[in-house]
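Journal club prep — side note

Before the paper discussion, L.F. wants everyone to see what a predicted structure for a comparable chain looks like in token form. Sequence:
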Amino acid sequence: MAHSFLVFGGSSFVGRHLFETQNTADSIVATYCANPFPGMVEFDSHRDRVDALINPGDDIEHAVLLLGDTQPDSCFADPVRSQRLNVESIINLLDQLFELNIRPVFASSEFVFDGDNGGYVETDEAEPILLYGAQKLEVERYIENHCDDFTILRLAKIYGFTPGDGTLFTGMLEMVQARAEAPCATDQRFSPVWVGDVVSAVMASMNDRLTGTYHVAGPVGLSRMELLELLLAEARLHRDLAFSPKPCSIHDFDLPEKRPLDVSMRADKLVDASGIALMHPGEACRRICNDAFADQ
């Protein structure tokens, strides 16, 4: 079967879920760089050529760009390296895609916003205060200035259901089971989104040819403390927990850059265009706790 689209950064959290759920009859060419994954192709965005991934008979119209350093602290710690990876190598990829007439689907971030207001829609002014957000916005602007047919997906904080996956709610559950108390920010707000909904948004951007910028975010914006309380309420239906969250500010943590306070986004545009029913974080907490305590 001919390959139908490319995924750069296939070994990322979203990339793995996209590959595992949508790779019907080897229809996807997915790449990795530092983290090998079965069925994927090694690709270095600094030096390798896109056309080397394409075989005769392939009918590739879209390329999903998920690669890069997505950790703000890591980007800030080495700005030269992160600029080269997150901006320069992506622009190099984009130029090759434009030459091949392959439509880009670029994964951007909630961190293009400064966090002063929250509830952001796509037409709100992007003014990042994090270096990582500035790098994402630079690529967004490049795409807008050099391409007419594209999708930019601004992703909120992504979570999964699998224990040990290092995402929001599974990490919180591990913490409350292992500790008696921990600080939790009451002033940092965002709209966490399930990875399955992110995959659906990526597929809709190609299948429905969604052109322009779309926010991919959960249906509500909540503080980190409110999200922890949702999880605790579900966990305590299964087990008595002595855990006590200690309210604090996100600025109390020793972070190299000041964090934006409210990067919650509205995904109405995406929902209206695609019909995706976004998962509520309360439902996510219920599923995670039901699975975690099923045999206990």
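L.F.'s comment for the group: The chain has a mean pLDDT of 95. Keep this in mind when we get to the figures.
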